[in-house]
Amino acid sequence: MEMKGDFMERFFKKLNTVVILTLIITLSALTGISAEANSTPGVSDVNAQELNAEDRLMQAMATTDIDYTAHVQNIGWQNSVQDGQLAGTTGMDLSLEALKIQLENDYNMNTGSIEYTLHCQNVGWTPVVSDGQVAGTTGSGLQAQAACINLSGQIAQTYDVYYRVHSAYYGWFDWAKNGEVAGTLGLDTKAEAIEIELVKKGSPAPGSTAKTYVDPSTLSNEGIISYTTFVNNGWMDVVNNGADSGTVGLNLPVLGLAVNTPNKEHDSSIEYKGYFSNVGWLDQTFRDGEQATCGGQPLEAVAIALKGLDDYSYDLYYQVSVQDVGWLGWASDGQIAGTNGGGKAIEAIHMLILPKGSPAPAPYGDSFKQLENPQFWYWPLNGYGPERITSGFGYRAEGIHDGIDIGVPQGTPIQACKSGTVIVAGWYYGYGICAVVVNDTGEKVYYAHMSAIGTTVGARVLQGQTIGFVGSTGNSTGPHLHLGVLINNNWTNPINFF
Ligand SMILES: [Zn+2]
Fold first, then answer.
1. Which of 122, 370, 387, 485 is the one with CA 20 to 30 A from 403?
2. Ligand 1 centre from 396 Cα, in Å?
3. Inside any domain, residue 379
4. Are residues 470 and 391 in the same domain?
């Protein structure tokens, strides 16, 4: 019913044009004034001036419109739209899944049809269909990624069909025409919306036609990134730009990560570091597909960066979803993505390489979250556990030992056990170079005998932040960290907190 109403409305619009043109013809005949003087501004054909009024009447009657309808993830079939309007959605993270396109050939002055296909996830190009039939898939949750549309028959002599696709992460591509590819191929990146317009041959395109699609297999200079995560007992299938690796909401920690840029040009590489539960940041920097794992420990945070010439051409973005926390904001180019302090694992990650200067994917920033877990004390020496304790807490012949001594190499970074405020940073009696931090939860923590201090009085430190380096200053016989915890002016055995 709606289609019929639409048709009638357009019929009357056309009828108005017909009436006006008929009047012009009549007036021309009566007065002898050339119809050229009343030339319709919209007609820009080279031969327009040569058309006589009758031809122009015929052309107006033969104007063809285009109707199309998108099938969208979680929504289903939308209402149909016309002539350059948006079908699908933008900014909702919903995939276009299928498409129907129809020509409205008033009076059948133009004969011919419209043919189209969608390139879909796991399927590739779906069968070419025409004139209102369904291209793509419905009911299987498969995202469409690219579109191809063409005209055939007499109408192809009169019109060009232009269309452009809005893709996740990329936004609007430029206008493709007459069977060109619009969207992305081979990137696991969903198409979200499409606009389609018929333009008379010889008339200008609706907008730029410079870049209609991305296909990493043909555009060697286009950024692409592949990655995989280790979940449960194995590595997941490698995915590309924008696709999730890992799981969400299944409480399955990511235990490893491997990242590569198979399409890179120049002398470039991708580098990444991992922060693992109970261990902290690994010293090792992983490159170009190396598997970053740590004896089955969950991954809590990552930092990933492009190195070499690609660093000048592209920006790298990545985003992680964390157990009980959800998706954090996007990080870029070496920033930390993940959490610290809560023992919460990364469950999923996705990444993107975009040309330098492209807008950052949203939400950008806040990619790292310091989890304020009052129960949780961070072990202050990454890579060295409690087995390194050389002297425990308690009374000795010479008096109380007011902390624990942890023997580790000179220069080992010391991380704050909890977030707090620094009240001592420097030489402090027999403690040598020492930092004292008042935790947000009230305890005073002494980090003593440092070789160098890494903070200042009054500074706020975050749990896990480096505040100094192991040494043997003050009353000490060898490199170690003396860790003391004072609660309500009572020395308390620090080991109780780990
Ligand atoms: Zn000591």
1. 370
2. 12
3. no
4. yes
Q: C-alpha dihedral over 406, 409, 411, 414, to 10 degrees?
A: -30
Q: How far apart are CA 468 and CA 69, in angstroms?
A: 62
Q: How many domains does the chain have?
A: 4
Ligand 1 centre from 478 Cα, in Å? Answer: 11
Same domain assignment for residues 44 and 78: no
Q: 84 and 40, same structural domain?
A: no
Ligand 1 center–CA 391 separation, angstroms:
7
Tokens of 149: 């549309």
Residue by residue, what is the 3-state secondary structure of 134-150?
A: CEECCCCCCCEEEEEEE
* Residue 174 and residue 254 in one domain: no
Give me the pLDDT at residue 265, please: 52
282 CA → ligand 1 middle, Å: 27
Q: Which of 371-375, 422-426, 493-497 has the lowest mean pLDDT?
A: 371-375
Q: Are 87 and 193 in a shared domain?
A: yes
* 257 backbone dihedrals φ, ψ, rounded to 5°: -145, 140
pLDDT in tens, 190-230: 999 999 999 999 999 999 998 888 765 543 344 578 899 99
Extract the tokens encoding 495.
């080991």
Q: pLDDT tens-digit profile of 286-337?
A: 999 999 999 999 999 999 998 765 566 678 899 999 998 899 999 998 999 9
pLDDT digits (tens, 9 = 90+) for 83-111: 999 999 998 889 999 999 999 875 455 67
Kindly state whether residues 19 and 38 are assigned to the same domain. Answer: yes
Residue after which a domain boundary falls, among 39, 61, 83:
61
Q: Which residues surround ligand 1, an ion (CB under 5 A)?
A: 405, 482
**Tokens at 150, concatenated:** 């063409």
Q: Provide the domain limits for residue 8.
A: 2-61
